[in-house]
Amino acid sequence: MRKENLFLGIVTVVVMGLILIKPNLSWQLGRVLNYGQSVDQNAVILENQVLKSLVAESKVIDSLLKKHSDYIPAAVYSRYPFEFRDELLIDVGGSDGVEEGKEVILPVDSYSRGILLGKIKKVFSRTSIISTIFDDGWRSSVRIGDSPGVDALLIGGSEPILSFIDKEVDLKEGDIVYVVDPGFTYALPVGEIGDFYETSDKLFKEAVLNVGYNPSNIRGVLVINN
User: Which of 28, 105, 132, 165: disulfide with 205, CB 3.0–4.6 Å?
Assistant: First the structure.
């Protein structure tokens, strides 16, 4: 016991002597003694951040649909501060079964019902790019209203329009607009008819497509997987 006390005393004297000779040694020694504690605290903080991130992602995905093998749920990456509408980047890709040309819908309830937003333009391993109906190059055949309906051409853009509508037909604001293009699921809705007018050459009518949502607020989508 006496030997142990003597050894502890010698060590204490040596350490105090070193601190007097090199004052910055006390700061370095403190770092060493507190290192393990700091690592533990940092690990807890990082773990909490990861868990919070997983919870946030889960809420986005779970809000999209009841699990269904015909759909691949995806979260949309932020476009802030650039509010691009024509293309969206999502967090699923080839490794998740996504393929180019697949339709993408915006879900409106938990039963996977939704409206057409666009289609897969390019696929990477873990991400994909969606070309939306807000792309200037978008073209698809649609029909307005109930049976038999009125044929029209959906022309994409920041404000999509319905073109080449027979000028003799009666149109009504609020009529449903749905896809009848061979490249898409039949009768998939895209929005409602808004204001309409005759074209400058008086040959057809045109109308505004009301989509009923703000593209900037889209947080999640479904990729049709059948």
Answer: 165
**Rounded CA separation 38/15 (Å):** 23
Phi-psi bin for 192: left (phi > 0), alpha (psi -120 to 50), beta?
beta
**What kind and span of H or E run contains 113?**
none
Residue 14: the pLDDT is 46
The answer to whether domain 139-210 has CATH 1.10.1040.10 is no
User: Does 15 have pLDDT greater than 50?
Assistant: no
What 177-180 contacts at long range (C-beta under 8 Å, 24+ apart), as own/partner pairs, is 177/142, 177/143, 177/144, 177/152, 177/209, 178/142, 178/143, 179/116, 179/140, 179/141, 179/142, 179/154, 180/141, 180/142, 180/143, 180/151
pTM tops 0.90: no
Domain boundaries, the chain: 2-61, 63-133+215-224, 139-210
Greatest mean pLDDT among 5-14, 128-137, 169-178: 128-137
DSSP string, 23-86: THHHHHHHHHHHHHHHHHHHHHHHHHHHHHHHHHHHHHHHTT-S--TTEEEEEBPP-TT----S
Average pLDDT over residues 47-62: 54
Query: Residue 116: pLDDT above 70?
Result: yes
Task: Check if the beta carbon of residue 106 is closer than 8 Å to that of residue 114.
Answer: yes
- Give the pLDDT band of residue 225 (cuts 50, 70, 90): confident
Structure-token match 């932020």, residue found: 78
Q: Which CATH class is domain 63-133+215-224?
A: mainly beta
